[in-house]
Amino acid sequence: MSSLKDAIFAVIRRAYPADEPRPNGRLDPVYALFRRYQPREAERELAYFTDTSICSGCKSCEMACKQWNQIESEPIRWSGDSYDNTFDLSAKNWRHVKFIERFPEENAANRPAPKTIDGLLKEQKSGDWLFMSDQCKHCQTSPCHEACPTGAIMRNEFGGVYYQTDICMGCRMCMAACPFGVPEVSPETGHSMKCAECYDRLRDGLTPACQLACPTGAIEFGPREAMLEKARARMRFLHENGHPEARLYGAEDFANYSGLNSFYLLMDKPEVYGLPAEPVTPTTFMPGDYLRGIATLVACAAAVASCLMGSLL
Amino acid sequence: MNNMTWIKGRPSPYELHDLTHFPDWRNLIVWDAFINNLASGLMVIIALTGLATARVFGVLLPYALILAFIILATDLFLLIADLGDPWRFLHSLRVFRPTSPLSVGVWALTGYAVCLFLAILTTWLPAILGVPHAVGLHMAMASRMFTTLAALCAAVVICYKGVVFSCTSQPGVKDARWLTAFMVSDSLLMGCGLYMCFAVCLGAAMANAWLMVPFHILLLFRFGAFWLLWLDVAPRARRVHRSNAFIFVMVYIVGGIIAAALACKGGQPGILAAGALVLLTGLCERYWIIGLTRPL
Predict the structure, then answer these.
(1) Per the domain annotation, does B261 fall within a domain?
(2) Which residues from chain A sit within 8 angstroms of residue B22, using beta carbons?
(3) ipTM score of the complex?
(4) What integer best gives the mean pLDDT of chain B?
(5) Average pLDDT in the B40-68 region?
(6) Where along chain A do its domains lie?
(7) What number is the average pLDDT over the span B237-263?
(8) Is residue B3 domain-resident?
(9) A193: three-class secondary structure by DSSP
(10) How many CB pairs under 8 A join A and B?
(11) Chain A neighbors of B28, CB-CB under 8 A
(12) Which of B13, B99, B180 lies closest to A100 in CB terms?
């Protein structure tokens, strides 16, 4: 009995440190339910820069993410038309290395094989691979954050978007709002989940697990301005060396969407990588949609009322 | 790239597919949208008729409030049952976030439920308990006040339900700028249709005569709003529903015309049939609209 009492008092003591005045006396437990702490002061904005031109598709980042965040692995499924068996970002896959495999349908296996390395290198390519390590974009103005009705989604002091799964009620509005198809409600827990930007590691001065595990240096993480400089320098290098198709995605604001705190250097147009070319913030239309609804409501109500009043007269 | 010619005409596996995650908007969500619009549309019609012409609709009002409450309770049940973690529904009442249509809706629904409950209490208690005349007058005034407040909250509920779909990134509905306007006109029409059926069941022929013109006006409003909605979503509707997209529109228009004719010429059975038809088309529309978000 006393241990239970001690446990309860331990919780209360944690919520109300000794030096803090009690605001409501006996109403403290009720007050505690509605109590809000001040958010931490914003620190330097951190961002990911993913260079898809040097991603080798090894999926080390996926593994590191699962390992650090203790996310259960899923049973292996085969799509039948790709070497990628992660399929998509989900509640259990916070990172996903996309494989873009584009090959001609005719099988060229019966051609004579080149006899030398030079011959192999000079051989005309008949297909190509693109890889992209995808994750939450930690948008600077995030639709999921705006759409959440419980306040479970917050922006942390490093500019990342963090989901508090202990508050989420599983309404799926974040899923509906995200133009990139990132968050998903876990069928097991009923709560929405996605990349947490290794917030626990950041708090301890470490970099995210995926960045640490990347063997080619395709994933970089650090202050946004520094990442931007790196990204622009890399794009310049690629442009100067025969790759005019290289482009940055999400580094700057889009026409109808904010910039991303996880931006990419792509080697083809965004649609090829399964990214929207011009994402749109859904709340852009909110005032207009409400206004059209209210106008219709007023018009309908006025028509009904005038009919009734007219009949009355 | 060394040789880009092969890429032409060969889309990547990610192209031409929906990029967003499907939020599993299936039966429960469709029924929630339907019942939600029905409950709120009915409340607005009840309040409009009850306050504008109390002499005619005053007899129906106490029973209609109970009907609205039952439908609202069903909607709240559906809304909560659809959550991933229903026990955490109260978390949405810890904060108010105007940028979240669902937050606006949850608060409006809560206000609607509380006001409607108080309206029912203040309407029925004097009759059940037999309170003194002076107290009865105050209760009647309170009843009118709570009915008006419930209708105002219901009006917010009607408006939020369209926005909660249109202000997302889901294909189809994200382009439906007139979805809210359509849902508003449709919910009022469904409310009116249900109220007419209710009046028939309670034998209030006079009430139906008064509601006949508003019913037809609301039908016209719905046609107009649906036409504007169709202009927004037609490309997606053709991809998702294929040839059924156009057939549905025709069935919908013909159904509406039949409902109008039945209400006019069919007598009391005709009114019941017209009300049922309006509700049925309302449910089908929601399956049709929310079905636009289905992944291709």
Answers:
(1) yes
(2) 175
(3) 0.93
(4) 90
(5) 94
(6) 1-35
(7) 79
(8) no
(9) strand
(10) 242
(11) none
(12) B13
Q: Tens digit of pLDDT for each residue in B93-150?
A: 989 999 999 999 999 999 999 999 999 999 999 988 888 888 999 999 999 999 999 9
Query: From the DSSP assignment, how many helices (H) and strands (E) are in chain A?
Result: 10, 10
CB contact under 8 A, A292 and B177: yes
Residue A177, chain B, CB below 8 Å: the answer is yes
Q: Do the Cβ atoms of B12 and A179 come within 8 Å?
A: no
Predicted local confidence at residue B4, as pLDDT: 40
β-pair type (A153-155, A161-163): antiparallel
pLDDT exceeds cutoff 70 at A2? no
Beta bridge partners, A262, equal A48
CA distance A164 to A57: 30
Q: How close is the nearest chain A Cα to the Cα of B15, in Å?
A: 6
Checking if the pLDDT of A279 tops 70, the result is yes
Is 60 exceeded by the pLDDT of residue B1? Answer: no
Q: Is the pLDDT of residue A105 over 70?
A: no
Roughly how many angstroms between the first and final C-alpha of chain B, as a whole number?
Answer: 31
Which residues from chain B sit within 8 angstroms of residue A309, using beta carbons?
Answer: 52-53
> How far is it, in rounded angstroms, from Cα A301 to Cα B28?
29
Cβ contact (<8 Å) for A308 and B52?
yes
What percent helix, strand, coil does chain B show, rounded to 5? Answer: 80, 0, 20
What CATH number has the domain bearing residue B64? 1.20.1630.10
Q: Which of residues 180-239 of A touch B (CB under 8 A)?
A: 180-186, 189-192
B281 at the A interface (CB within 8 A)?
A: no
Q: Does some domain include residue B42?
A: yes
pLDDT confidence bin for B6, thresholds 50/70/90? very low
Render pLDDT for B141-182 as a digit per residue (tens, 0 to 9): 999 999 999 999 999 999 999 999 999 999 999 999 999 999
Question: Helix, strand, or coil here: B231?
Answer: helix
Residue span of the structural domain in which B101 resides:
25-293
Mutate to test the interface with A, among B61, B167, B189, B195 (most CBs of A within 10 A): B167
Nearest to A169 among B15, B85, B97 (CB): B85
Tokens of B214: 């508003």
Is B88 within the bounds of a domain?
yes
Which residues are CB-neighbours of A58 under 8 A, at least 6 positions away? A97, A215, A216
pLDDT of A74 strictly over 90 = no
Query: Do the Cβ atoms of B192 and B37 come closer than 8 Å?
Result: no
Residue in B14, B95, B100 closest to A173 by CB: B100
Q: Do A171 and B92 lie within an 8 Å CB cutoff?
A: yes
Looking at CA atoms only, how far is residue A2 from chain B in angstroms?
A: 30
Give chain B positions within 8 Å (CB) of A34: 94
> Which one-letter amino acid corresponds to residue B126?
P
Into how many domains does chain B fold? 1
pTM as predicted: 0.89
